[in-house]
Amino acid sequence: MPAAADATPLALVCGGGSFPMAVADSALRDGRPVVLFAIRGFADPDSVQRYDHEWIHLGAVEKLISLLRRRGCHDIVIVGNVLRPHWWQIRLDLMTIRLLPRILAAMRGGDDHMLSRLAEFVEEQGFALMGAHEVAPDLLVPAGVLGSVQPRPADLEDARIGLDVVRTLGPFDVGQGVVVARRHVQAVEAAEGTDWMLERCALLRQRGRVKLPDRAGVLVKAPKPGQDRRVDLPSIGRLTVEMAAKAGLAGIAVEPGGVMAVGMAEMVREADRLGLFIYGIAE
Amino acid sequence: MPAAADATPLALVCGGGSFPMAVADSALRDGRPVVLFAIRGFADPDSVQRYDHEWIHLGAVEKLISLLRRRGCHDIVIVGNVLRPHWWQIRLDLMTIRLLPRILAAMRGGDDHMLSRLAEFVEEQGFALMGAHEVAPDLLVPAGVLGSVQPRPADLEDARIGLDVVRTLGPFDVGQGVVVARRHVQAVEAAEGTDWMLERCALLRQRGRVKLPDRAGVLVKAPKPGQDRRVDLPSIGRLTVEMAAKAGLAGIAVEPGGVMAVGMAEMVREADRLGLFIYGIAE
């Protein structure tokens, strides 16, 4: 990153959830000014107003670019959920409409494809698309055991199998999450997301479809191999720990440096309280 | 198969569902006598009594073997669900108790491993474990389009991707089913089973988490590569078609010769009525 760009305010294009604010706080702790470009209808107004910010509409690319230029931004990070937009939340300006064929073409062929096209476009406009992990590296889950609960040998084996599954599924642009229990793959995450998969694992046990002792099995999360890490690194948090506990799992294992955690200290406290380990898989 | 064995009555060890009866009917149509060894609490008594049969308890291996010998059986097929047995449904006889260490060892390491150990044991006792597909080949879904609805090029592409995913996951002993829609993997089946996965796909659309036009996406089923096909070939039926329709899919694609269908004609009629294709993927 050139020193000149580093001095410019960081642009955080900000959807829903608490993740954008965690990234902003981390960058501010590093002494870098931050401007939130908060997407109306998604970003939380109460949180947004605590930061230097601009409101934007989803789909208003031209407006966003002119605001980015006016604020002297160079580095852009896109964070937070933009799930299920309603039509009235989308405002297409002229530039967006001109871009529609490219946007539609990018939407074919999986998330990774779309994200690389987005990065290309941002660069054409003279900006740089960065990953949350680059501006807020303290949000990445490190290698090793995080809390006071240690994974047992059977857990380490489950973690290893889970990591293999995620990596094997990489070419299909799917499966940042998988649950392995006693060497059996219990669930593979696709479009439903991690929370829903963990709910399913809890039900599989309740309904007796999967018979396991309590605290057996590991949730494994890792980025897809070759994934553009600038957008959408997998993440875990306190809720993930709670849902993993409800699913009867022994802990959570992640690819170190490849998975983010919002509220890491709080998450680890909760894991300790519930008796789950959190482990950055040592290779 | 030696001619001598072929003349002996076929032993169908029979759990729940209608699948065992479909296999019995198919063998009988071929002129082969059949004896059902119906597992108490699982096999349906009304259906069982229409056939020459013996009742057995789950877990009573010694008793089963003596019955098999008394009936002059040589070839054994095991079919039907034995899901979630209650303790009072299990009767361990002396032979089973002696076998317990082997059974427990076989239960580690995935379904495939367990099935090969089972086949080994059956052969040691002088019997042969056969697959339902060997004694009832007319239950296998053939290559090509089965009903009157044709898959479109986009569906064929989804089917191909789905088959790749199933084959890639083979080494992990998981995923006989997968849903692919417009080149995106929507869901991967693990311990939850096909029906549950299809319910999830329906919910993913209802909740707007996946946005697709109606009748887009394909359920793909195929045996795991290297799977011992003598037990537990994947299957589809009328219910699968109905659930695929509710999930908004365009059709069902299977590995021809690798997936069984109970009530094939009825299933195809239902698929035609609902506008879904059923397709044995041509390689």
TrEMBL record, chains A, B:
It holds the Pfam family LpxI_C. Residues 142-279 form the LpxI C-terminal domain. InterPro entries: LpxI, LpxI_C, LpxI_C_sf, LpxI_N. Residues 10-139 form the LpxI N-terminal domain. It comes from the Bacteria. This is DUF1009 domain-containing protein. It comes from Kaistia hirudinis.
